[in-house]
Amino acid sequence: MTRNKFGAAVLMAALPLAALTSVAASGAVSPASAEAHAVRQSTTTVRCAGSATSCTATVSLAGGASNKRVVIQLPEAGMRLKSVRPNSANLDGSYLISDQSSSAGGQRYAFTMSAAEAPRGSALKLRFTRPSGSTPHIVRCTGSTSQCRATIPLAGGASNRKVVVQLPATDLGLVAAKPSNKTLDGAYSMTRQHLRTGDSEYTFVLSAVQGAPRGSHLTLTFARQ
């Protein structure tokens, strides 16, 4: 058995991708109490860049690591780890990830990392996605029983996001859908629209390009029919 500076740990380090992919597939994580037992020599917080449906966190491997605690800040609760890959094939088997846990209502994903010394620019890419069929985005339509408006965020994009608009009356129908900026025309789609629960909820599936800037939104107007 070949050993390096981590000794026997190298044999374990060859398995992180498979192990984590299994975690991602099942959606399971170790109890949050595992954080209390991790050996913490240092802690790094990384923001997961992307949208509420898909994001990627980049964790540096440069210089190596020894029991470093890493905390990933996710843009939305309910996201699951989809894949883990180093940015160079030469780094395969040179790192070990353990003690994975989820906290802050599912908006933080933490783990302990050890890695052999690696050159500048070396990094680990962790991709998170929101599973299809996850908790819908619920919006209240504000106004009167004869007309109301609902604002749906588009910033960062969306991929098959289920949206539920709660209406103040049962005889309202959609009369207009207008993005906050004309540049967003054609940059989104609404499918599978229907009324439910006694016609007091309007549901649909929303998709939008990821390039939508911060503050972008869609205004839906409902009126009595």
Q: Care to describe what's here?
A:
9% of the residues lie in helices and 49% in strands. The chain has 225 residues and is mainly β. It has 2 domains: 9-129, no CATH class; 137-224, Sandwich (Immunoglobulin-like). The N and C termini lie far apart (75 Å).
Strand order of the largest sheet: 1-4-7-6
Q: What proportion of the residues form beta strands (DSSP E)?
A: over 45%
Q: Please give the alpha-carbon distance between the first and last residues.
A: 75 Å
- Give Rg in angstroms: 22 Å
Parts with pLDDT < 50 across at least 5 consecutive residues: 1-40
Q: Provide a count of the helices.
A: 3
How many strands?
A: 16
| Overall tally of structural domains | 2
CA-based shape: elongated
Structural class: mainly beta
Provide a compact summary of the structure.
The protein has 225 residues and is mainly beta. It starts with 8 loop residues before the first helix and ends with a strand.
Write the layout of secondary structure elements.
Layout: H1 9-13, H2 16-26, H3 34-37, E1 42-47, E2 49-50, E3 54-60, E4 65-73, E5 80-86, E6 95-103, E7 108-115, E8 123-129, E9 137-140, E10 142-143, E11 147-153, E12 158-166, E13 172-179, E14 188-196, E15 201-208, E16 217-224
Parallel strand pairs: 1-4, 9-12
Antiparallel strand pairs: 2-3, 3-8, 4-7, 5-8, 6-7, 10-11, 11-16, 12-15, 13-16, 14-15
Key words describing this protein structure:
Immunoglobulin-like; disordered N terminus; 225 residues; elongated; 2 domains; 3 helices; four-stranded mixed β-sheet; mainly beta
